[in-house]
Design brief:
Blueprint: H1 9-12, E1 21-24, H2 34-43, E2 48-51, H3 62-67, E3 71-76, H4 83-90, E4 95-98, H5 101-112, E5 117-120, H6 127-130, E6 134-137, E7 143-146, E8 152-155, E9 158-164, E10 170-179, E11 184-185, H7 194-200, E12 203-212, E13 231-234
Parallel strand pairs: 1-2, 1-10, 2-3, 3-4, 10-12, 12-13
Antiparallel strand pairs: 5-9, 6-7, 8-9, 10-11
Helix pairs in contact: 5-7
């Protein structure tokens, strides 16, 4: 029997070396592999290239690696919740490849499916296809690296831009359930990007909230089969956070009460 379970998150990420590229699952702070990111931070790994929908917030998720200058380059689609991210980008300390969200998802899916490139209408007629999108500034605020033009072709009268797929060195994902063979089940919003990152990573490491024996998961409910996963880490009770909590205004005649907290089980 193949047993892919490793004893700890620290052991699971021990061979991620300086300069490695990582596909990191999750959407906002939902479904991000917190335990694996923390272990990587503790390991001291640096000069990383990350591929993720966003780069965490200032004190959570990938934000803790970013804060300590561990990330050299990131390929992301949304970067609006991290002040340190903006500071590093504008100061010339971080290279940012801003990518349309659907294109980023397909880059990962295609990479996992063995498809080297694909055509998409997203970005046609903009700097995404025509080039010139600032990726890195120098210390003086001048553009040091700009995106290159991409091939554009016409199909059935419409233009499409050629995008290359992504196959990072490692995929780091968070799953609700997993078995010892690496079969994974995700919950709600955590379905965003986690399955794609699991597929795309050359070596995929999954942290799971519930670890079950092979055969206990209904095959029809498995979102990512174990063939894509090389390591599994059991992380019961892992902390979850949300970026923003919005509540409705109190009804007339009632008393408003504000609550605060950092954990949220829904959608993670």
């Amino acid at each position: 029997m193949i047993n892919k379970v490793v004893a700890s998150a620290a052991e699971a990420v021990a061979d991620i070396s300086d300069g490695a590229s990582l596909a990191v699952g999750g959407f906002g702070l939902c479904g991000i592999p917190v335990a694996l990111i923390d272990a990587l931070h503790g390991h001291g790994t640096t000069n990383l290239e990350t591929v993720s929908n966003n780069c965490g917030v200032d004190d959570w998720g990938l934000g803790i690696l970013l804060k300590d200058g561990r990330i050299r380059r990131t390929i992301s689609s949304y970067v609006g919740e991290n002040k340190e991210f903006a500071r590093q980008y504008l100061a010339g300390e971080l290279e940012v490849v801003l990518t349309p969200q659907g294109t980023l998802a397909e880059k990962l899916r295609a990479g996992g499916a063995g498809i080297p490139a694909f055509y998409t209408p997203a970005g046609v007629g903009t700097q995404v296809s025509e080039g010139g999108l600032p990726q890195k500034y120098d210390a003086g605020g001048n553009v040091e690296i700009a995106s290159a033009p991409k091939e554009v072709r016409t199909f059935n009268g419409a233009e499409y831009v050629l995008e290359q797929s992504l196959t990072p060195d490692f995929g780091l994902v968070h799953a609700w359930k997993g078995d010892r063979h690496g079969n994974l089940v995700f919950h709600a919003t955590a379905m965003n990007f986690n399955p794609l990152c699991a597929m795309a990573g050359k070596i995929t490491i999954a942290e799971v909230e519930e670890l079950v024996e092979p055969g206990e998961l209904d095959p029809e409910h498995v979102h990512v089969p174990g063939i894509f996963v090389q390591r599994v880490v059991f992380v019961p009770g892992v902390e979850k956070r949300i970026e923003k909590r919005t509540v409705a205004a109190p009804a007339a005649g009632t008393t408003s009460r504000t609550t605060s907290g950092t954990t949220d089980q829904a959608g993670a």
